[in-house]
Design brief:
Length: 201
Amino acid sequence: MKEEKQKVGQIRKKEIREVAKKIFLTKGFQSTTMEDVITEIGMSRGGVYYHYRSKVEILHDLMREGMAYRMAKMNSFMADYSSELGKEAIAEMLVDRMLDENELMSIYVMYLQAIKDNDELKELYSILKEETLHSAYGGDINGVKLGDFRWNTTDFILYFMNAIILGCEILEARNNFRKNRDFLIKVMMLYFDYYDEGKIK
């Protein structure tokens, strides 16, 4: 009975996230309210708030979906990759992650744009970083977590990757970056070398 109730709860949460995602993509994260979600889903106010107390909580779970999506893509990449999981493979996967185009990436960019003046979103950034690198939500590549690769944990690389992601979405630079994918991979490899030499601040 308890397992059935939990299963139903997960289904309801998924329904709320899907509705919220659609509204975020239409109105933008900052302009969306919980009332918008309640109205669109047709569920009682109490029913929605039982599962999510705020749109930030919904956003958090959507970002966790993004982690699972990204890790599935990385594992798919490794399944077809001819060499071992090393610097070059990580460089290619991180570049592909930056240049990927999907709805959750668009919502992530909305989040980055909104973070400057929102303390709750600033707190979420640290949580998402930890979950991406080390938690079960972040998943693993053949049993190895992203945080196990020391190069992935610096502020510099996280800021750099977010800057590329923002450029793809806001400046519509994705197609140009994709044409220069090989160069971006070399940039990542150079970063790894600089890190190993202790030159990254």
